[in-house]
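WARN no homologs supplied; continuing
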Amino acid sequence: MIGLNPFVINFAGLKSGSHNFNFNIDTKFFEGFDYFDFKSVELETKLELDKQQTTLNFLFNTNGNILVPCDLTTEDFKMPVLSNLNLHVKFGEIYSDESDEILILPYGTHQIDISQYIYEMVILSVPLKKIHPGIKDGSLNSDILERLKLLQPKEKETPSEYDSRWDKLKDLL
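OK structure emitted
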């Protein structure tokens, strides 16, 4: 039933002005979108809806932590997430979501499901390459990290002896 979905905002019954909503996002939210890359999710989304006569302005603010595996060591770590999204809703003859920040709903629409916008906002805020913070500051002790250091290419300690055959090439200039 669409009426029981906590992410459906029924804006028809709201007065003009500002309205605030809070949503707790967990792992089940992402499983509903068949997205299983996060091991644990603890996010809070604050939504400010500014209802005007002919438009709706949504301001999403999400913060919290996501438990993800490191792309280098596969060690799990909590990645902080901080994300914002502005969505302007206008009304027109047909539905249109061609723009990232402007949504056009058909006249007579009384509610909107915001779950897709929260999902996209969080997914796009996660970097493509997830690196454990212990790698950057050197505090992570991992077998995989030690093996990567052993397999790292060795730098030459001293430059090789000078080869005079290359001097002929300098004459071409």
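The chain has one domain: 2-148.
OK
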